[in-house]
Amino acid sequence: MKKLAKIFFACLLGVTFTACTDHVPSEETLPVQKIDFSYEVQGEQYTLDYYVGATIRFYATVPVETELSWDFGDGETAVGDEVTHKFIEAGHYKVTVTGNGSSKTNVLYVSDIKPIVTQINDVATVTDGLVEVGTSYVSFNVELPNPDSLAAIYNWTFPAGTTDENGNEVSNFVQKFEAKSTTPDQVLGKVKFAKVGSQAVKLQVQMQTESGSADYRSLELVTKNVQVALNEDAPTVYYAVKDGTINALKIPASRTIEGVVIEPYDMGVSSGQHMLNLVYNEGLIYLMDCGKQFTYINDVDGVKGDGKIQVMSVDATSIELVITNVGGTAFKDPYYGYTDGENFYFADRNTGFRKMPNATRNAIWNDQAYPSYVENNWLGYYATTSMVYGSFNACFGKVGDVWYWCKKDNGAGVWRFTDADNNGSGRSDWKVEDQPAAGQLFEGTPTTAYVYDAKNNVFYFAFYGEKAGIYRIPADQLEQFHPNISDASLAAFQSFHLTFEDGGSIKPIVSSSAGEGNVSEYIGVCQMALDEQTGDVYFGYRSSEEEMVASGLIRYNAETGKLEHVIKGVKIYGIAINPVKSKLFN
Amino acid sequence: MFINMKAFNKLCVLALACLALVACDKHDKLDDLVFVGKMAPTVYWSVASTTVSAGDSVGFDAQYYTTGESPVSHCEVWYNVMEIEAKEVTSAALPSVAYTVTSTIETERRISTRIYDYAHNEGWLEDFGVNSMGDTTYFQPTYHFSAKFPTSTTLSTIQWSDLGWDSTLVDMYYGKGFMQAFKDSVEVLLKGSYGFGRDEAKGYNKVLANKHWADYKSIYVSKGGDERVFRTQYTDSMIDPQTTLYVYFFKDSILPDAVDSAYLNMEFGDLIYDGNAYKISYKRSYKLDAQLHCVDEEGTAGLSLPVTIELN
Fold first, then answer.
1. Of A404, A519, A416, which is closest to residue A462 (Cα–Cα)?
2. Does domain A116-229 bear CATH number 2.60.40?
3. Does the N terminus or the C terminus of chain A have fewer Cβ atoms within 10 A?
4. A214 in contact with chain B, both atoms CB, cutoff 8 A
5. Residue from the list A16, A50, A318 with its beta carbon closest to the beta carbon of B48
6. Chain B residues within 8 A of A316 when measuring between CB atoms
């Protein structure tokens, strides 16, 4: 019996182990997939362009179980697994396929014919690709997709001051191409430009509607920006135009050059939603966009962030993502920034700022990888002064060993500290004696930006509210405003207030209906940039009193000691100066 | 505690059998819950620039490998086309109204389609690297290549803000009928009567007349009306005892026909001109959500993270 039991158990074990085979999932017949499709332009040319009249192939991207019927959204239909179609008008179409017991609609943009304008530099007058103001000639080539060789009229518009090789001013130039001809009735020769900056050459083409017709239709306007260089080396100021693009402007040491009009360059790079800071470092401009929503939002799930930092080469030929907070916590969007040449520091809305290497690219914001460098309650100011946990950030940076941290509310002013003052973690039991020795400045005065001129040992500060304006304060006069602007120091403070020649001054917008923030966190003058060669200070101003002092790019002219408009009418957020002197970008 | 040896052996064998049965993957329920997919190639890429001029190529650096049985056959760049359309127009000629229409709309205009293919090349294999200490360190053999993918010149940014006012451009970019709809909206605000047509809104109160008095005057004068007639024939004034400032109002409770028709005769362009510029702008730009697919010989594709490319 014992032996029998042993045999039985041995068999059981054997069966158990041998029955256990490697499991291979059985092949299953999947249910019929819902229909889906894609499309592509047939042929060799213009396959990316989806020009009107192009033959477009539509095909299913899942196994087809039933006959497919197609609706192209232009009143035309077809049947078949794979069909082709030509759209006779440019526009946006909704193409629907029905089959496999379902239907799917995909969008398709059919582009109108668009001329491609290319700039041809005159080799005799253009060196190293640099089109110099007043001396360099360029001409233009147009590629017009025109398979039916229809007649076309080219209307060129040139910026003021453009001249041809004979010195004649050229403002408009019309060329007509007869049907089936590739030769215009007039030849547009070489031209040169009288102004520095992006010189917009515009081409409006009117094209015969069909062969033999007397009717013409306008194609979309094409603008070719010719980047015209200065005739001497100069630094460049870059600025983010509100709801626009990054612009750049040459700033020669003499400020103006006789006979030369200096206009800005449109760098063709979007200024994002609220690009409050631009930061220059060794041939690169860091673009800090805190996103569309920059004031309070109820972000309970921590997913409403939409800010990011990108980095642009000074000639805007390269833009890379540094770090993104899209989909992260809204208040952790990057608002303000500073670099010490090795590391990049970026402030959130009202908690603190963080550090990452300058070389960081394609990073996704997270607390573990980019922990705080400092937070409000890591400093002895917290709980011992007006600074509270949610103290609203503004520009910050380092002068020598001392950080200057501008704050707009919940402890407005400038909160100075050294790295040794940074506790590295939060505390609520700070004592008055723990306050950083550097001390705060202007307590209670909303401070949005500062810049330090080391050569002249002078600070510039931007404030909004009761003491709104730009102030130029020698470093040795600063301590009288510690911890605040007292009755005794008020007169001295006012003496540092900068004005325009006519007495006008800066009053940033403090109205919550103007899209410039809310109480506690108006944007104001959100950055200032120093031109080290002249001592001039540049900043963008969005005015609350356009009729008094217009919005624009404004400069403190160190020679006159007054504020002055460099460009009127433009609304600017962040600003930075590339100090490397060049005729164009370097 | 005493345990019978025989019973102990039986228990051990029984436990072993149970363990074997339970551990056997035949009882793995995973297959009942999901369709197990094929191993797809792993793909990583980074682009040289996230903004390029429409028509220029986008450079990128790619790495891929597969641990599946089928070797990689080729890679493909796919992208869709997103359009961002921003409009802003303000009735700048009438500061008391300053009616502004703004909109920014982002719409997918083309679905993600295959743009460019890159045949697999064994020469791209990099099977070792050097770590930060300078030592050779072996890791997953990876294919590494650099290439470009094209964009279309038709997707260049259109920005219209400095061309002055052109009704054909307004029709083209804002849509036919927009100019009249805008003018109607301004008229409703001017007359302070919401939700009524022009005729119903003619009867309005003196407070609103005072608020818009200066704008009405400029409308009337801009259409050739005599300012003195406007002041004396149609309107009157009094001193507000509280502010001691003059307030102006129309004499009748009905807007004078001459003033009414002056507004009706205003061109859309007059309405948006602030004395220096026409306050209307339009911008249309495009961006691409691009992704690199590396496909093995069985057609299984591994996808990179998407990258957004802005065109200008």
1. A404
2. yes
3. N
4. no
5. A318
6. 51
Query: Whole-angstrom Cα distance, residue A364 to residue A324?
Result: 5
- Per domain, the residue ranges of chain A are 37-110, 116-229, 371-526
Same fold, A37-110 and A116-229: yes
The one-letter amino acid code at B291 reads Q
pLDDT digits (tens, 9 = 90+) for B222-259: 888 898 988 888 887 777 777 777 777 777 767 788 88
Of A17, A20, A319, the CB nearest to B51: A319
Report whether pLDDT(A12) > 80. Answer: no
The pLDDT tens digits for A332-346 are: 999 999 999 999 999
Tokens linked to A136:
């360099």
Phi and psi at residue A181, in whole multiples of 5°?
-115, 145
Q: What is the pTM of this model?
A: 0.80
Quote ipTM for the complex. Answer: 0.74
Chain B hits for A21, CB-CB cut-off 8 Å, are 26
* B-proximal residues of A, 540-569, CB under 8 Å: 569
- Which residues of chain B make contact with A547, given a CB cutoff of 8 A? none
Any idea which fold A37-110 has? Immunoglobulin-like (2.60.40)
Give the Cα separation of A573 and A290 in Å (integer): 11
Residue located via tokens 């019927």: A69
Domains of chain B are 37-82+106-157+283-311 (2.60.40.3880), 183-271 (no CATH)
Would the CB atoms of A109 and B110 count as touching at under 8 Å?
A: yes
* Helix, strand, coil percentages for chain A (3-state, nearest 5): 5, 40, 50
pLDDT value at position B198? 39
